[in-house]
């Protein structure tokens, strides 16, 4: 009968392992040896505190085992990549006499031991081990092949990943263990049962046999968390008008490989090449950051001597350009003219050319019946010339019309045409009619074109309200409570009420507005009397145009002026005699100027794209050139329904400085190719360019949306120029990520190429030593509330002005690009910022932990070296600063080899978007003020109170420590202060009498003393400090 008794070694976790990968981390796995039976766990990548939670089974025959001289050896190794191998991290030997039965097992932690004398080992491992006859060795079915979803853009990267991954046999060996490694909360919710712990079958090998391959890579550990039976079902999202048959079209962070959320390299053939039979391919300098796209251009200029119509006797001509199944039409003239002029360009992409003949028809528009064909011109595509930029445009020529029946007969009339083969670099490309947008008509034609926009020139308008005179209220028996209200467009600001009730009030307050050139609004100043808490009475007002104010470029004061106020409330209702009388006029003293020395911020300073002041006279020379090639997008999610299937009409917007660019809209495709290149001048390298992808909902058709519909956001990418190497072309695919009320979603990939060219290294270095903003921001700074309010007003002005362009850059697009809601409360952002602070402090905590280990002589060799180094630095203190700077120099050189190879992108873990709950997301997407129910708001308020209570406790503890320091000399505790000042007296005498080096050396050696000379109780200074009083007991 087969022995079913098993020895179970439950490998739980490990902590504080030794880094082995050269980057401060390790990829550990555990190997257990029991009587020549070897078994190992999976590999946990990049972790010094791994969690395996994995059971390993071994055959256990009690009759053949002697508990006194046998043991279990548990070894921890680091898996080396890409060269197969492993590095020793530590081991533990457990005598079999310590083994218990299943019901008596406990979780135990063991300190890892060295294998050799010179081994560098640290850390602990947590284990459970017991003997069981009820748990059977698991027999796993053949694992399913692991095929994560790969979008078309990732096809090239998949080949490279395959070269670095394990072979197929190795993947099959460990796939079953990888698919059941840790409890999955998402799967628990779907399946309704608890995930069991992994039970690894033992591999019976001879002691001398060697593993041919290392433990499995993390590429098979990261798996889909969806229910495999439900993953095949289509998804329907009616709220977003989204319909998709593939569930991976809308990927969430927990549903896919995290590699899909990272920036990927792209190997593309960029730059223009023109065929040259004599010299092969010739490169051009235009559009060298995008893929070359050939277009057939047809420019229809005008016609003459057209024959009159057979019915009306006149002619309503238009031109139809036909190439295969594609047809483009000009507008028709209804003025009965025979000399029409269109001057319109048609563009047909070379990839979609379906014919070898281009036909141009001239037709007469008929109200009733079929349009008459007046004639046509045919072109053989093989004979069409090619225009190579930057050559001059091809001159149009007159062509005689032929009979449309194809008999070669010449008819009356001529048409002026120019036909050539070019690329997207042609100046006719932006305004051309494109064959792939033939279904768009009317106003939608203007909404799909590529355009360049310029933000309006913004100024800060500073109104210094000084004083007023002769403020007479309507009730002469009382003194007025006067304040001033200023209004510019939709902006309204008020001064405080004058603290003294008087007819000659004094304020001396500044009111700051945002205005834009050309100035369309006027400044309206009104002086009002607070009659009642709910009633204000206007005493007088004045309206001033913007062009009368002085423009100030620096901090020099502006001359003030007195303005007479118009009496409010008098007018046509008064008798003529009263209106002719000379009325007594109040007046107000103002100092008004347009501030040209500030930079008007319409975006956050954290990712600002321009730092120049408003006044052009204060601009400096550019320090570089930024070139962006917007190549295309891949794997976009369907944003609307069209003919029962998902569709997206995507366009891309890029914003840097005052220049906005918008690509043309590619219709009805989830993988648009724009291949458009744009250039910006760079005045400061520490700035950010923002690119966003949107779905066009204004194409003039019912399916694309109504006039009130908004363009849907698909995703956004930010690139900081200072992270780019000069003169290097970065070609990458950036994931488009959108945080939605139901979680973080990947909506596709944006493919762009970037090149930052520096004009002068000296100017770049000069910029790094100067303030980020103009000097007026530091001489006369705004308050935080003013900055937020002015930024919001500037954003509204920019959105309004750009919305009036043709085609308009809509408000929802501008708001998303400028991140207008970044200042609103979010629990997720609060957590992210808290953990950012903790990440910064973790380095200091690690140093403190290391110093504690040195003081406790946990690593004797290190402690001895630290003592020697301390002795040298005390004896030669002039070496301290050089040693510190040299150390930082070598750290920088060491980190150079692991420097980032691509621009940074949105970090999901840093943003705390991977673990955010649905309630927190609902709170983040709530309107302001809230639109949720009273009960839900009350629950959220209680949660916020609990979080604030913990913060309050931490802040109180920090304040208590500071108050204890103050109490040392405040005599609040007389005995403690007496002891402290006596100690200070004694210390001053000792420090004066003894050499400083001797005292520093003695103090340091005492602090670093061996644990044999230490007490486990707190030290005397610590006890004394904790007994000092704070002001906590005085709080209510």
Automatic annotation (TrEMBL):
Which ranges carry the C2 domain?
1-110, 277-399, 440-563, 607-734
Q: Which GO terms describe its molecular function?
A: metal ion binding
> Which segments show compositional bias classed as Polar residues?
241-254
Sorted alphabetically, which keywords does the UniProt record give? Calcium, Membrane, Metal-binding, Repeat, Transmembrane, Transmembrane helix
Q: Does the keyword Repeat apply?
A: yes
Major subcellular location class: membrane
Compositionally skewed regions (Acidic residues) per UniProt: 158-168
What is the official name of this protein in its record? C2 domain-containing protein
Q: What organism, scientifically named, is this protein from?
A: Arabidopsis arenosa
Where is the organism placed in the taxonomic lineage, from the top? Eukaryota, Viridiplantae, Streptophyta, Embryophyta, Tracheophyta
